[in-house]
Amino acid sequence: MTAPKSDFIWMDGKLVPWDQANVHVLTHTLHYGTGVFEGIRCYKTNKGSAVFRHREHIERLFASAKILGYAIPYSVDEVMKAVRETIKANNLEECYIRPIAFLGTENRGLNPKGLSVHLSIAVWPWGKYLGDEAAQHGIRVCISSFTRHHPNITMSKAKATGIYINSVLAKQDAVRNGYDEAVLLDPFGNVAEGSGENLFVIRNGRIKTPPAVSILEGITRDSIMRLAEDAGIPLVEQFFPRDELYIADEVFLTGTAAEVTPVREVDNRPVGKGSVGPVTQKLHDLFFDALRGKNQKYAAWLDIL
């Protein structure tokens, strides 16, 4: 299977052909995982193509770099302008957007002091991350044998490349065992998140989601929390153990790539009736109304190109 691609990638201020967007093999980030990145989506709306929660994503990119101890050599506004430029250059109405900052080749050791900071932005057409059937029928997940990071081992507020080896191991293990996705526990045995998604559980009409301690502060997660509040659906950030998933009425995952994905089964146990639940469906519909520009209350979430 060939991954989707587009015509141009923005690199350090210039648009270059996709196949020429190359990085030296001795870049520090390749060896030590010191890159920071974002996953963003551009959607076709009733007012044209729009980047969803654009500024929040780019601000998180800058925050991730700050946590790792370096500065991106552009402003937030300059990077947002570059994202728009890259989408337009590739003539895409809808796409996935991947900005990544990475360190140069000036030093071979662990210490990143003095290394140059580079930035690239790639865009490409990308459909449902967990498959076209996922939103309609839900997915099967398992509790992973891999544990989410302790907040003092790696810093969970940073969306850093090296941290994601934990996600890769959990994801490939789940798929090898016949599941669609993995759910990781935190170091204390509480539910944390999916390999690349935040998690919500619904029981007796009330939503719970883990606090942002060992998990990434997801922007889609924040969107769902705000939509739930505005819809009058009770929601709390609270730690809970894995067996709460087994007795939940509904479970769903959120993320830029995954959007809102219902879970129909956890560790071979059906969630609720084993189908998409009413609260999940309602939040899914509210979310898509917002990103398609159908609800003016959330118009500020859309950066129209």
Describe this structure in words.
With 305 residues, the protein is α+β, with helices and mostly antiparallel strands. It is built from 8 helices and 17 strands. Helix 5 (165-176) links the parallel strand 8 (139-147) and strand 9. Helix 2 (54-68) crosses helix 3 (76-89). The radius of gyration is 19 Å and the shape is globular. The mean pLDDT is 95.
Lay out the secondary structure.
Blueprint: E1 8-11, E2 14-17, H1 28-32, E3 36-37, E4 40-45, E5 48-52, H2 54-68, H3 76-89, E6 95-103, E7 117-124, H4 134-137, E8 139-147, H5 165-176, E9 181-185, E10 191-194, E11 198-203, E12 206-209, H6 219-230, E13 235-237, H7 243-246, E14 250-255, E15 259-266, E16 269-270, H8 278-291, E17 302-304
Parallel strand pairs: 8-9, 8-15, 12-13
Antiparallel strand pairs: 1-2, 1-7, 3-6, 4-5, 4-6, 5-17, 6-7, 9-10, 11-12, 11-14, 14-15, 15-16
Q: Count every beta strand, where a strand is a DSSP E run of 2 or more residues.
A: 17
The total of helices stands at 8
From the alpha carbons, calculate the radius of gyration and give it in angstroms.
Answer: 19 Å
Biggest sheet descriptor = 9 strands, mixed
Report low-confidence residues grouped into runs of 5 or more: none
Structural class: alpha+beta
What is the ordering of alpha helices and beta strands?
Answer: EEHEEEHHEEHEHEEEEHEHEEEHE
Strand percentage: 25-35%
